Amino acid sequence: MYKIQGLNISHANHVWSTDITYIKIAGGMVYMAAIIDWHSKAVLSHRISNTMDSQLVMSVLNDALEKHPHPEIFNTDQGSQYTSEIHTKRLKDLGITISMDGKGRATDNSCIERFWRSAKCERIYLNEYHSISELITDVDDYIEFYNHRRFHETLHIKNQWMRTKKI
């Protein structure tokens, strides 16, 4: 089921990964789903919602598929949103190989887990959000920074978009 262990991820759109994280705002929790390219470390699509459902992950997936060449492999955890028929059928219909982390193995999805850590420690935890729209604006700004100006040690470059023009 987990298909990327030991895989040499050599180019953009070889492997995409997705996950959902929780973010606290005034009035409760919201959920952010994102897709990241393992090779370039670029966040390809993201959404924030007050519900954690298949509609959230399908919105993120469809946005990424519209904007970028399709990946060869799509990695997720085993959450119900990712194992749902609508999600797996969309990927299979496009000929994309589905890879799923082992149960309870967040390290299998390390690329997006590192992004969550960076986003939360560098931006989200430093602010108090009074509304979902305030959070969305700030996260959009952070992802623009993350994709275009932030140094990525594993890439040894400041701007991973310089690494590939295919994204």
What does this structure look like?
Strands 3-2-1-4-5 form a 5-stranded mixed sheet, with helices on both faces. The chain has 167 residues and is of the alpha/beta class. The protein has one domain: Ribonuclease H-like superfamily/Ribonuclease H (Nucleotidyltransferase, domain 5). A hairpin with a 5-residue loop joins strand 2 (28-37) and strand 3 (43-49). 34% of the residues lie in helices and 22% in strands. The protein contains 5 helices and 5 strands, in the order βββαβααβαα.
List keywords for this structure.
single chain; alpha/beta; Nucleotidyltransferase, domain 5; 34% helix; disordered C terminus
Please, what is the CATH homologous superfamily? Answer: Ribonuclease H-like superfamily/Ribonuclease H
Biggest sheet features: 5 strands, mixed
Radius of gyration equals: 15 Å
- Count of the domains: 1
Helix content: 25-40%
Query: What is the rounded distance between the termini?
Result: 26 Å
CATH architecture: 2-Layer Sandwich
User: Which CATH class applies here?
Assistant: Alpha Beta
The coarse overall form would be: globular
Please sum up the structure shown.
34% of the residues lie in helices and 22% in strands. Strands 3-2-1-4-5 form a 5-stranded mixed sheet, sandwiched between helices.
